[in-house]
Amino acid sequence: MKTIFHPHDSRGHANHGWLNSHHSFSFANYFNAQKMNFGLLRVLNDDTVAPGMGFGTHPHDNMEIISIPLSGDLRHRDSMGNEKTIKEGEIQVMSAGSGVTHSEFNPNKDKEVKFLQIWVIPNERDVTPRYDQQQLPDLDQKNVLHQVLSPSANDAGVWIHQNAWFHMGRFDVSEVAKYHWKSDNNGLYAFVLEGGFELGKHQLGRRDALGIWDTNTISLKATFPESRILLIEVPLGN
User: Fold this and answer.
1) Alpha-carbon distance 91 to 158, whole Å?
2) Is the CB of residue 163 less than 8 Å from the CB of residue 181?
3) 129 contacts: CB under 8 Å, gap ≥ 6
4) pTM beyond cutoff 0.90
5) Which domains, and CATH codes, for the chain?
């Protein structure tokens, strides 16, 4: 098993007043040649948007873009005609494909919105753009890893154009779970949302991350009450 540790304070940081963002990988004005991506996981931004503020209309193409609200509400509009609000306990995906424009903003005047913006490089180019969002009621069940994204429209959660799987879970202290790789050619990027976890011999705290490859299973143990984790399994190459 091989690993790479990304402590929370090694992330890029940009505070624009209305937007406070931490970048796990090179993004916008943050550049680190050693942190361009983890396999086909290209972007993992930990964003906080001030009340009533947001991202103006801007374009994307040939990228799978996933948004996971952690608290508050996020309003989405796009050139496909979608106008939706996503909340904590939901997940959103937009396949930018041949090209799409969209905006995202915080519709609330008295509360921040915190969300993860994740980009995965697709395995098909110039597909027809599409949008989907789903509630994730299973996340209320503790001490289980819940699948929230896969390559299949017939599987649990949303789907994307890539051989990737996302799982999320909330764990009581000392609870243990085991994750089995879906594909032997993939790596796993474990990102601690809250609390802490022991992954193999590694101790991770809040917003720490660990990339793992050259194995097909890993055990994780919560080290704090109400610990939350996101597991992102992606191909390591094209």
Assistant:
1) 7
2) no
3) 79, 80, 94, 95, 96, 97, 98, 99, 100
4) yes
5) 12-135 (2.60.120.10), 138-235 (2.60.120.10)
